GMP synthase [glutamine-hydrolyzing] (Caldinitratiruptor microaerophilus), 513 residues
Amino acid sequence: MSSELTVVVDFGAQYNQLIARRIRESRVYCEIWPPTTPVEQYRARNVRAIVLSGGPASVYAESAPRIDPAVFELGIPVLGICYGMQLMAYELGGDVRRAERGEYGKAMLSVEVPDSPLLRGLDPVTQVWMSHGDSVISPPPGFQVLARTDATPTAVIGDPARRLYGVQFHPEVVHTVQGKQVLENFLFRVCGLRGDWTVDSVIDSAVAAVRRQVGETGRALVALSGGVDSSVAAVLVHRAIGDRLTAIFVDHGLLRAGEAEQVTRTFRDHFHIPLVHVDAADRFLARLRGVTDPEEKRRIVGREFIRVFEEEARRLGEVGFLVQGTIYPDVVESGASGGGAVIKTHHNVGGIPEDLGLELVEPLRLLFKDEVREVGRALGLPDELVGRHPFPGPGLAIRVLGEVTPERLAILRQADAIFLEEIRRAGLYDRIWQAFAVLPDVRSVGVMGDGRTYAYPIVLRAVTSEDGMTADFFRFPYEVLERIMSRIVGEVPHVNRVVYDITTKPPGTIEWE
Ligand SMILES: Nc1ncnc2c1ncn2[C@@H]1O[C@H](COP(=O)(O)OP(=O)(O)OP(=O)(O)O)[C@@H](O)[C@H]1O
Ligand SMILES: O=c1[nH]c(=O)c2[nH+]cn([C@@H]3O[C@H](COP(=O)(O)O)[C@@H](O)[C@H]3O)c2[nH]1
Ligand SMILES: NC(=O)CC[C@H](N)C(=O)O
Ligand SMILES: [Mg+2]
């Protein structure tokens, strides 16, 4: 994909995905590898730069994750971050111990060697973000101290001859004001990279890889939800194999208002991808009748999805490949990021059975969500599709709390549509990561038109997030909330109250079930 492969070695830091994203933002291609990756792999893949991530362990502990010290002798430049720096120092003969003073949060870094290639262009004193209890007490032979903080005299160390560097702070977080400069200094000045990772190069190599995998005559299916990932995967594969790709869109009756029409229209008119639209609402709702347990609902939807899918696959016949919109966080989280070579053997559709006999095609498996969006834009997908909020596979079944009935789905759909319409009208859609309405299974007393009501509340949920793993509630202007409330109560039957969920994740999750 690029001749400038950079590897982030994962020692269990919360931030290793963030390190990889920052590197890619500088247009350098990067993968996350486990510390157990054999040294030969670094040579075989022609790795040009290595970043050792932070991690919760202490290097001197028995069980601490390590790396083959031969990595430091490959002649490839290394940047150790926090634990990564401590590990490098420890392995090369430095002294690492519990510091007298831990350092958590903001600290001021004083640059001592301003002409070090790693620190070029930094302010003499610059704010960094720290999170460590151990410190490099004395650096290994060959290393010099390049910068310090009050609590940590060895905040940055380096051996310019061997191109080995360590920073105790976290350059990848925004609280380290000049962190991007430090990472780019490492990539461009220390390693001599140029940054040739562009969306066009990503698309070209993904298209070529799909052609190689599927061959001249192979046929493929894609389960298309209309969400960002499966849509971008579909368009990419369509570019590679044309109408040997068929998309299957399942309307399970748990979609938002207008969604099925929108998805089918976009794909038929805009992309000319043959699309099978399966209207399966009745069978999903029949299976969900009387079911209130959230996990049971998810299982039922997942299982029914596969049944529908299998039936369609059998009907089409002679299909050898299944396209999935698996993205990099899915891969990393499933522990399959070992050198990019391990193929994820399971899928994210909810359980495609082995005997379906389809080989997986996953053209987005090395991309982050924002990169997937960029690829989608470059492929000509309309903004309203690329910028869509994520929508969960089980759909409204997990937003109608308790039993899912056609009546309660109708209430939720109408309220949800008003909520999103007003968000768009206020110009806030793109500032929010995900927004939706929830219908609880309680009722409360109200007064409307001088009469007593006893009806449902609607819960509004809107969050900001980078990746869905953590989230904060969105700060709406009160006027917008007020308009949403008055429209929902005024227009949606059986609703007499509107509440706004201000729970962060953690402790809450984004969805209610
Ligand atoms: N209604 C549907 N019809 C067909 N396939 C679906 C449907 N809903 C979900 N899927 C499949 O399940 C996968 C996982 O859904 P998921 O919501 O994680 O991804 P997405 O819909 O592609 O993107 P996004 O995260 O932006 O919603 C999808 O990529 C798609 O293959
Ligand atoms: O495709 C999906 N199938 C699911 O079963 C599912 N459950 C949650 N989500 C989405 O994941 C993100 C995090 O959700 P939670 O904070 O509720 O776990 C949010 O974006 C949720 O919408 C799902 N997506
Ligand atoms: N964030 C880290 O990498 C911490 C490293 C090590 N556990 C310390 O406390 O110093
Ligand atoms: Mg989706």
